[in-house]
Amino acid sequence: MAQELRGIEATTERYDLAEGVLFDDRAGLVRFVDIREGRVLSARLDGDRLVDTSEVRVRETVGAVALADDGGLLVAAARRLATISPDGDLSFGPDLLTDERPMRFNDGGVDPQGRFVVGTLSLSGPVGTETLMRISADGSVETLREGIQLSNGVGWSPDGATIYHVDTPTKTLSSHSYGPGGFDRDEPWVPVVTDFPAFPDGLRVDADGMLWVAQFSGSCVVRYAPDGREIGRVLVDAQQPTCVGFVGDRLVITSAIEHLSPEERLPADGALFLADVGVAGVPPHRWSGSTRPTKETS
User: Fold this and answer.
1) pLDDT digits (tens, 9 = 90+) for 155-179
2) What domains are defined for the chain?
């Protein structure tokens, strides 16, 4: 029988669309974003609360935040990457989306080789033409996957040999072989989970190789084995969990009030939650490029 736990509310503030949560072990801070508000947020864990929250405003949507090896942060801004240096300097790279239709970057993560993998989201509704791309420190861009309806959570197995990826509207979590060399696009993606209880959103992989997937509109996070079996569940008092991250063996869960009218909202919708799950996550990989300002294009 799958283990069932309950998360506890950890923030006073409510967020419109909190996402992308991860732990910065060097700074001792929990990092996350509020996508539509363009906020990159940092908080300190104090017991059962996230406190002393600070922010950097990016002035456009921020789909994800990643750690950089030089101590700064890499951000998936609307159509380009942004960096926040260790000194707090905000810089922008060039537009990376050649398609001119309304779209933006969504969830992403850094692979074991220090490259950023990020997907896109259509602003006019799912159309099946979104992509998952890989961006190296030298600015080169590769397409890893096409034909996605809405690209969401990305993660890697502990040995880095498998990548996992969520397509939210199709309720599918798929896997593909992965490594330091080129990506074999002729190899098909293999469905891992197709019977989610709600809409799969952000994901993280734990040290045992299990997959934790936030269930948007499902009030829970579900833990899956790599063969797709459900082996655990964390319930939260929010309707729209969006992402998960690990601080030691504690799970941090973000949520959103997006799409909910004031009448529909529960008191804890939009909060962050904590759950003691007894297993650590795979530590976030760090972007190999520089976040220190050189030339800004905005």
Assistant:
1) 999 999 999 999 999 999 999 999 9
2) 3-276 (2.120.10.30)
